Amino acid sequence: MAATPLLRSLHLRFEYWLFDLPEEVVGPAARLALGPLRYLYALVRDFIRGDLGLRAMGLVYSSLFALVPVVAVSFSVLKAFGYHRELEPVLFEFLRPLGVKGYELTASIMQFVDNARTTVLGTVGFLFLLYTVITMIQKIEDALNFTWHVERSRSLPKRVSEYLVIMLVGPVVAVGALVLLTKIEASAVLNRVPGLGGGAAEGSGNSHVAPYLMIITLFWFMYFYMPNTRVKWQAALVGALFGGTVWVSVGAIFARVAVYATQTAAMYAGFAIVLLFLVWLHLSWLIMLLGGQLSFYWQHSEHLRTGHGPIPTTAILRERIAMGAMYLIAQRFVDGSDRWKVSDLADRMDVPASVLDSALCNLEDRGLVLTAEDDTVAPARDLAAITLADILDAIRHETPNPRRPEPHGVAVADAAALAADAAMRERMSKTTLRDLLESPDA
Fold first, then answer.
1. Element (H or E) spanning 370, and its range?
2. Which of 43, 49, 165, 417 is deepest in the core (most CB within 10 A)?
3. Quick one: 29 and 57 in the same domain?
4. Are residues 296 and 153 in the same domain?
């Protein structure tokens, strides 16, 4: 128990050195080194906390059900373009770190896919296949929404349309990218460049660049498209470069560990390939989430210090955020401009999206705003029927909850608090949101 305060003190001292040292104390060289250290600290801290690991485990569970259906759907889509035979090499690239077992597992999965294509599934079987694929994509979206501090998922109509795009376009892009990159890699021009020619790659068997570029491309697509928020392509690219590089490096290490494990773990017999597959799936998803977390930090560096920890706010700050959000939402409504998305509104107000989303949920519970199918927010009532007291009430007095304790208060203190609240309500109930828009000085 005595070590806990000491560790906490050391942690606070380290954070102060990393984030709070005055610029006049830190030299140019140290300031240049502190930048990467802050990102590294944030990623290591999030990894140690374990939230990303738990979500990676959830994705492993979903992958076990959805892998064969996803490959089967991809095979059917690619068959229309004549590239269905290229699917097996793409699948093997993801299983390459398993070594010889990767070949066996790829062949087994393709055999399952062949059975799924040649067997009459019926309505129930087809619906189960479609359900597993959609559930898998939804799990990926939820995990990346977590890394981006996004609490609102896509609406149901938007999920159906965008998930169908992923199911139909994703396999074509993945296989097309691999085929194109392989042809470029083996081109006569690159063959003249030492170290880049396809001949050397064929001789070594492990130096193809195309599969790794495809991995980075797929990571970039997931980071850019899957989170339900606006992601800058530069932030997605930084995360994809990190995730792809770490994935390849860990894969090379895991390939050696896999060879040693299959030689020494004779007790598992044929079950060893299943254990290796599960471990590799977990590592792959964990690396993907760490890359997504880096993308978020690159775009929102203000979260480097807090990460997924609670963001301290005060009552007056929450009221200011709610009042400012309602004003901006109403302003665009009156101007006839495009409605605000939560992420864009958070950027405009320079507040964390999770804090803003919490305030918007309170406003929505009181019927002051509504969320449209395209995940934008708009006023839910006539602006002349929304008083400033209504907005503050939504933050001060949340909807009744039977789990919330009701203390036995002190009569005199309660009377003073209620008097202050009544005075505020009387003053703010005289001004509507439309009045504030038309006469800001009021």
1. strand 369-371
2. 43
3. no
4. yes
Distances (CA, A) of 145 to 55, 190, 204, 295: 11, 40, 40, 12
Question: Which pLDDT does position 115 carry in this prediction?
Answer: 62
For strand 369-371 and strand 376-379, is the pairing parallel, antiparallel, or unpaired? antiparallel
Q: Which residues contact 331 (CB under 8 A, 6 or more apart)?
A: 437
pTM: 0.73
In a domain, 308, yes or no: no
Q: 369: which strand partners?
A: 379
Q: Put the strands of the sheet holding 369-371 in their side by side order.
A: 340-341, 376-379, 369-371
The answer to whether residues 123 and 23 belong to one domain is no
Q: How confident is the model at residue 116 (pLDDT cuts 50, 70, 90)?
A: low
Asked whether residue 280 falls in the same domain as residue 296, the answer is yes
- Residue 309 belongs to a domain: no
- Structural domain boundaries, residue 59: 51-303
Residues 202 and 265 reside in one and the same domain? yes
CA-based nearest residue to 383, from 441, 319, 334: 334
Q: What is the pLDDT of residue 34?
A: 75
Same domain, 64 and 39: no
CA dihedral sign, ordered 49, 53, 55, 61: negative
Selection from 333, 324, 319 nearest residue 394 by Cα: 319
Residue 320 shares a structural domain with residue 243: no
- Whole-number Cα distances in Å, 168 to 133, 239, 252, 375: 12, 25, 31, 23
Burial of 409 (C-beta count, 10 Å sphere; 0-12/13-18/19+):
exposed
- Find which of 197-206, 324-333, 417-426 is predicted with most confidence, using mean pLDDT: 324-333
Residue 260 burial (CB count, 10 A): 9
Closest CA to 254 of 101, 98, 103, 100: 98
DSSP codes, 375-413: SEEEESS-GGG-BHHHHHHHHHSPPP-TTS------HHH
CA nearest neighbour of 132 among 74, 75, 66? 66
